[in-house]
Amino acid sequence: MITELGKKRITTTEEGDQASAEQQSAVSAPKKVSKKQVVNGIAYVSVSYNNTIVTITDLRGEAISWSSAGLLGFKGTKKSTPYAANLVAKDCIEKAKKYNLNSLKIVVRGVGPGRESAMRGLAGSGLNILSIMDATPIAHNGVRAKKPRRV
What we know:
The protein has 151 residues and is an alpha/beta fold.
């Protein structure tokens, strides 16, 4: 029964129409989505004076999971604490365990209070740590010096 603007209309279908409707529903059924299995991953830890962000990717660089101190509910100066960094790392690992993650390479970028704590959180998760790399950007020459002052 189909209602339209308060009016009732009764529709009848024949057996041929029902068969075509069943075929259409079988075609439009959602396909099963297979979760990809990621055995080896790379954990990118971005640590600043204000926040800590951890992203876990597969070897091609496609993100599997990520987490940050702000996402976990820390606000203000509490986002930059070592405790928050440790929880961020543990949360990110828990999200990535759905993909059967086995071993990790850790890439740390930046300086901040949560740097060591985030690495400890990743290492204490029970995964194999293959390597730890520091990718902190370092200026090689800096900006141009000011012109000399004439008095």
